[in-house]
């Protein structure tokens, strides 16, 4: 009888392992996809693409079982040879090839775009249409390694702060969010909608776990086609109980950002260097009231205040510019948003109910976070719903949590793709999404 014990034995190494295990100067075996071939007549340089790096292999005529004429870009291969120090090669070594084993051969010999180039010199539309192939480009791939680091930082940091990860349903009977249209669907003869937010479920779970977080998709059926909106995006959400004020939430987010920026600089240094990303130094983040921020940029940049209840994209950019110029900060918390533009569960400022105990976080002039303190008393929640002309019909399970007692709590949601876009310095959020869904794109 044979048993599986979870031990994976690999006779081949990655480029990083060759360095970390001190294998330079020894015979090694590597596997990867042929990313590029540079044929120099008497010698060929074969660049293998692996998950986290590239490995340069030299192939001299007559010194291996196959020649350069037997291999093509896109093949996956296994190469055995001597790892030799070479400062000019990626990672400071190359492999002198002795044996090549072909693992797979592409059906089409030529790539639809030259993925071996550092930057794909084609339109974003073409890049997205050819996404299964263009993701093999090293620059494109590095973007999403960095995005992984953001998610990893979010999870790791919140685990250290006593949060429990939850997973809430994305098919719901109704929505409690306002201001955005819904994706409607039929669910076994019933009407259902795709979740615009995990908000109500986060709040319900605070009553049980005190602190919860989720990384998951949310859906907004808004008919927009801007550079900063998607119809499906990934939201980094957390909700925490027993808070003293909404500033506790801002402190928690600041801690996450500091932790994550340090993580990126440490564990994603290769990708950060490749993309020339300016990782912000985050010691502390300024905060400014909504109405005060509007006044400051209006006076400094001579821009009239047109909408007293919300921030226009141009205003966000100017606010980001102001706090960079005045405080050298890439981030700023804008607090006390008008109640008119916040959902029913947002707690009003007890000193002025025209404003709420809520905030947005702007990063380099773009909003990446919305959060705030929630109403936790049932009578106040029902009164706010009535004020906003909402009916409690169909919200029995949500209201049940408040009927049987809820702690003071609040939370926030971070748009992962927007955060990534701003960190990378991209101009379009689709650049920071693996497979975007927008007004015109449903594939791939």
User: Helix/strand-derived class?
Assistant: alpha+beta
The overall average pLDDT, rounded, is: 94
The whole-angstrom Rg is 26 Å
Intertermini distance? 44 Å
Taken as a percent bin, the fraction of beta residues is 25-35%
Q: Quaternary arrangement of the chains shown?
A: single chain
Low-confidence stretches: none
Description:
With 444 residues, the chain is of the alpha+beta class. It has 12 helices and 18 strands. It has an 8-stranded mixed sheet, sandwiched between helices. It has a 5-stranded mixed beta barrel with strand order 1-2-3-5-4. Strand 4 and strand 5 form a beta hairpin. Helix 4 crosses helix 7. The longest helix is centred in the middle third of the chain and has 23 residues, at 138-160. The radius of gyration is 26 Å and the shape is elongated. The mean pLDDT is 94.
Which descriptors apply to this entry?
elongated, alpha+beta, 444 residues
How do you describe this structure in short?
The protein has 444 residues and is of the alpha+beta class. It has helices at 15-20, 124-129, 131-134, 138-160, 199-209, 247-267, 269-275, 290-301, 313-327, 378-387, 396-403, 416-424, and strands at 27-39, 43-49, 54-60, 76-85, 93-104, 164-165, 171-172, 184-187, 190-194, 211-219, 232-241, 287-289, 331-335, 348-349, 352-356, 358-363, 366-373, 409-415. A hairpin with a 7-residue loop joins strand 4 (76-85) and strand 5 (93-104).
């Amino acid at each position: 009888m044979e048993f599986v014990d979870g031990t994976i034995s690999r006779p081949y190494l990655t480029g990083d392992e060759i360095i970390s295990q001190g294998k330079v100067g020894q015979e090694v075996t590597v596997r990867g996809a042929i990313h590029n071939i540079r044929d120099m007549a008497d010698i060929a340089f074969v660049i293998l693409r692996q998950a986290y790096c590239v490995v340069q292999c030299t192939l001299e005529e007559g010194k291996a079982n196959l020649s350069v004429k037997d291999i093509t870009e896109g093949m996956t291969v296994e190469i055995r040879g001597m790892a030799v120090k070479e400062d000019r090669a990626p990672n400071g070594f190359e492999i002198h090839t002795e044996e090549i084993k072909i693992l797979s051969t592409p059906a089409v010999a030529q790539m639809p775009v030259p993925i071996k180039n550092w930057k794909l010199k084609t339109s974003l539309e073409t890049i997205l249409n050819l996404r299964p192939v263009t993701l093999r480009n090293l620059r494109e791939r590095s973007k999403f390694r960095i995005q992984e680091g953001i998610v990893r930082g979010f999870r790791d940091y919140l685990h250290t702060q006593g949060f429990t990860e939850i997973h809430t349903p994305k098919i719901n009977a109704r929505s409690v969010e306002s201001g955005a249209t819904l994706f409607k669907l039929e669910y076994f003869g019933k009407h259902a909608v795709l979740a615009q937010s995990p908000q109500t479920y986060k709040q319900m779970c605070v009553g049980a776990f005190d602190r919860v977080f989720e990384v998951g998709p949310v859906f907004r059926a808004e008919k927009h086609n801007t550079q900063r909106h998607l119809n499906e995006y990934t939201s980094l959400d957390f909700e925490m109980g027993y808070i003293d004020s909404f500033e506790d939430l801002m402190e928690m987010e600041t801690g996450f950002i500091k932790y994550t920026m340090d993580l990126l600089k440490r564990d994603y240094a290769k990708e950060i260097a490749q993309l020339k990303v300016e990782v912000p130094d985050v010691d502390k983040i300024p905060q400014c009231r909504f109405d005060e921020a509007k006044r400051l940029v209006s006076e400094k940049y001579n821009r009239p205040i047109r909408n007293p209840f919300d921030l226009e994209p141009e205003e966000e950019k100017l606010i980001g510019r102001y706090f960079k110029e005045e405080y050298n900060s890439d981030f700023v918390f804008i607090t006390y948003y008008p109640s008119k533009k916040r959902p029913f569960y947002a707690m009003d400022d007890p000193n002025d109910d025209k404003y709420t105990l809520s905030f947005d976080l702007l990063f380099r002039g773009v909003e990446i976070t919305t959060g705030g303190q929630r109403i936790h008393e049932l009578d106040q929640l029902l009164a706010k719903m009535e004020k906003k002309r909402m009916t409690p019909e169909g919200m029995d399970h949500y209201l049940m949590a408040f009927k049987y007692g809820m702690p003071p709590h609040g939370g926030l949601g971070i748009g992962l793709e927007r955060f990534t876009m701003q960190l990378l310095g991209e101009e379009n959020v689709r650049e920071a999404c693996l497979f975007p869904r927008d007004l015109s794109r449903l594939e791939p």
